[in-house]
Protein 1
Amino acid sequence: MKQVILETAGLTKSFDKGNAVLNKIDFSIHQGEVVVIVGPSGCGKSTFLRCLNLLEEADSGEILLEGKLINQEKKNVHKYREQIGMVFQSYELFPHKNVIDNVCLAPLLVQKRNKDEVKEEALKLLKRVGLLEKAESYPRQLSGGQKQRVAIVRALMMHPKVLLLDEITAALDPEMVREVLQVVLELAKEGMTMVIVTHEMEFARAVADRVIFLDRGEILEEEKPEEFFTCPRTERAKKFLNTFHYE
């Protein structure tokens, strides 16, 4: 069994008094594993990812990165975020910077890495996702799918130990979804450790080593994808999956 990279114990988060968005979540992901989290809107999926990345502060519970408790140590938050990369639904690219500057900014500014080495790596990654010719373009000149691929490259440039992907195709036109998901599938094949929140069920089935079904802030099921999608154990999961089938 490979090393556990990221885990939580009893993770709880509430936004309104008495309304737990996350309720005592126990979770772990091993090196090279892909875990997909599915569930209805508002069930706590995105909040969970934001807690893992320390963008949200949990009310209680523990988050451990390679066995080290990280959510109760305030001074090293930025260091831990470097190791837990996150790609958002809304790209979050700087509009006044071109593609190459967007993806090189954090390694240069935060990690103080060599400029020539960073640029060389950035160009290799842009080529890998089919965007080398867009290196000098600005976000306004890109399609939604291209922007999201740039956002993935930007996250990879920090050499994260685990990558969190939060509904990265939700804002895309259907034709652009496949080009983004193909990049993620390739990352999975190469052994990237990822936690993915998605509503793309066929993609989830193809990419996941394990599927977690979250509802009302609790893990109701945790199965291999074939088991979850063909024979869910709970009535709630069956009802959720039935919403993706049409007569």
Protein 2
Amino acid sequence: MKVYYIWDAYCGWCYGFDKILAPFMKAHPELELEMISGGLFTGGNEKNTRQLGAYDAMNEEIARRYGVEFGEAFKATFTQDLPIDSLRAAQAFGVLRRYIPQEEQVALAYRMQQAFYEKGQLLSDLETYENVIGEFDLDPMILLPEVETAWQSRAPHPDFRRARELGVTSYPTLILEKDGRYYDLRGQAQTVEELEATYQSLSHLD
């Protein structure tokens, strides 16, 4: 069986959902995981940090539900017009994930989101990835130039097309592939236990 996780680095709900996904995937090393960047703020839907201030109440709900932190440095960006572009984040993630084991990709995504949501660091700034890379024992002298090269393209990321092929338009979405069929694994799950129950139900389908 295989799990597809369609997420976006600038999606607050994805940031919170990590608190459920990470322990679930750790409990199921037998599951193959494919992480797909969805492209929330791209293709003409790019925004700036001042506009994200409108989601402050939603962020409070995410923090309450999942126990994640939205740092003061992040909230300070609401007074600025800093660019929010999911393409650059997807390109950077696409480069970095090639250098780490599959089981560490969820942690990589969360570290990227922590950089933004806790520290207010933009995911379109190269220096943001220096600390992220260091946490995974990767060589910044190799990877940062690769990220910079990837950013030279404004073509839609292949992940965006893959998300559309799966019929996904909202994030986070978690799909289970079993015997060539696709199932909504996330459903309404708000806890690890609820996600596990859904998985057990789907995994026993004939």
